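EI: anyone free to look at a 255-residue chain?
SC: sure, send it
EI:
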Amino acid sequence: MKYSLTALVALASASTALAVTLGTAPAVTIALTASQSVGGFKVVDPDTRETSYESEKITEGKPDKNGNVLTTTEYKTVVQTVKFGNAELLNGLLEDGSLPDGTVKGWSIVSASELDGDSQLCAVKKGQAPILIETEDSYESFAATVSGKDTTSSASPDVTTTVSYTLSGKLIHGISYNGFEIQGVETGSAKYAKGNFGKGSSAIPYETYLDGAVKLASISGNYTSEDEGIYALVEGTISTAAEAVLDLETLGFGQ
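SC: here you go
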């Protein structure tokens, strides 16, 4: 995921006279949970009536006949689990002022790329310019099966034509974003695709490699917010739908 929003918009702006920028933008579904230990004793401030939770409760007993006081300290924590998905991500963008129309309604999360370009996580909405969601990604330990066929002609021996290509495999994918540091095993596939976008004389030919549905599972990691005092264990999945060729202009790129 290396494209910046500026680069994506520049690509779209340099499109054909028909204002078509071919690319892909499959939907992304985030389903994470963040769990942390919190105090198990409910405490209500007698003045402000604000509620807090403490992990320790100290109780002093009544003096015995010798005037000695027995102090009892109790300890209790519970695991608090909250979900983090598409809705929470969009609400975060709203809170930091990234959504220009001031509402999460109508916005969705996609993995957008110009054909054969690197994908970038974006929030998109009809009639609005896309919002870049900047992540840092790492990939390692790749294992895959590949099959394909190329041809060359004696008339042009330096020109190779792809006939077919398929890939299926797994890799370790790490993601860093706004306090999240996670990694998991990503399973996916890819294939060579050739065709025309549109119909008749206005049809635009293309050839590219399209990813099938991708799932990042076995996620483990953490979420940290020192300001809020949150240090949480993160688990879950992130899924991306199969890629299909579309016009990125319809998603607002190039506006």
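EI: Helices lie at 5-13, 86-95.
SC: 👍
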